[in-house]
Design goal:
The protein is an alpha+beta fold. It has two domains: 145 residues, no CATH class; 119 residues, Protein Transport Mog1p, Chain A (3-Layer(aba) Sandwich). 26% of the residues lie in helices and 29% in strands. It is built from seven helices and 14 strands. The strands form two sheets. Strands 1, 2, 3, 4, 5, 6 and 7 form a seven-stranded antiparallel β-sheet that branches. Strands 8-9-10-14-13-12-11 form a seven-stranded antiparallel β-sheet, sandwiched between helices. Strand 5 and strand 6 form a beta hairpin. It starts with a helix and ends with a helix.
């Protein structure tokens, strides 16, 4: 990680207020407040820190709160690399069987767990013992959300994916190796009936063109396609099946795992038309 990124992380961390139990009446702090960085998070997470680090984790501030009924809330605020990654980490960890609520950029309050993203912060609260804690969780979530800096908006990349045929809730930020391809370092995926749409922003149009050329050399049965983005091709892969891949400006995008008998070109073209 560069010195500039570390400096930005440090400045952002200073702007994130540490959670306190006094945010909601009737709760007091149990034990010392917590603070972890990229080097020490492993110990707190019992070795389960890889997911946080993949989404650009920089620092965690936490506190444990108890009330007179011996209920316990473990509150942790994680500063991620940016707002997109905070939202992406929420979506990767949300309860897919429960609806997403309008808390920050997205959130959920369940019986024993509440999570949400706002700005570059991912917030999580774990409640015990085993009973319904929704009222207490909702109170803390509301107080935390008010005090956190940053915007309460979904990533702009959501707008890139055409609505027609989109599987609800399927858009994901992939922090590493989109479609399992190391050439596509990070990006976005969404599920459609016709296949999996993806967008991997690159540093520049030139680097996107270079990445597209490397992908073209990697796949088999490559055929050039006209009229989609700036340049495009169809191909086949042992794991990704039929593909349509294109470049639009500084992005490499397309549709993978095309369903049998389906034509992915209309979706690829609609996706290209939405990209900047």
């Amino acid at each position: 990680m560069t010195g500039l990124l570390l400096a930005l992380f440090a400045a952002a961390a200073e702007a994130v207020p540490a959670p306190t139990c006094s945010l909601v009446p009737g709760w007091t702090q149990q034990g010392p407040a917590r603070s972890y960085d990229r080097e020490t998070l492993f110990d707190y997470m019992d070795g389960n820190s890889e997911g946080y680090l993949a989404y650009g984790f920089a620092r965690m501030l936490g506190v444990t709160c108890v009330n007179a009924a011996s209920d316990q809330l473990v509150i942790d605020l994680s500063l991620m690399a940016d707002a997109d990654r905070a939202w992406g980490f929420f979506t990767s960890n949300r309860d897919t069987a429960s609806p997403v609520e309008a808390i920050g950029s997205a959130g959920q309050v369940l019986a024993r767990r509440a999570t949400f993203a706002k700005g570059s912060v991912y917030a999580e609260i774990a409640a015990s013992p085993d009973k319904d804690h929704r009222a207490a969780l909702a109170s803390f979530v509301a107080a935390l959300e008010r005090g956190l800096p940053g915007e309460s908006r979904v990533p702009r990349a959501i707008q890139w994916f055409p609505e027609q045929g989109l599987q609800p809730g399927s858009i994901r930020l992939v922090p590493q190796s989109v479609l399992g391809l190391r050439l596509l370092a990070s990006g976005w995926v969404a599920q459609y009936a016709v296949g999996r749409a993806f967008v991997s922003p690159q540093a520049s149009p030139e680097s996107a063109a270079s990445t597209l050329a490397k992908l073209r050399a990697r796949f088999s049965d490559v055929e050039p396609l006209a009229g989609i983005g700036d340049e495009a091709f169809s191909a086949r892969d042992a794991y990704l099946g039929e593909l349509v891949v294109f470049r639009k400006g500084a992005s490499v995008a397309g549709v993978a795992n095309v369903a049998a008998g389906q034509d992915a070109r209309p979706l690829a073209n609609a996706l290209a038309n939405r990209l900047p």
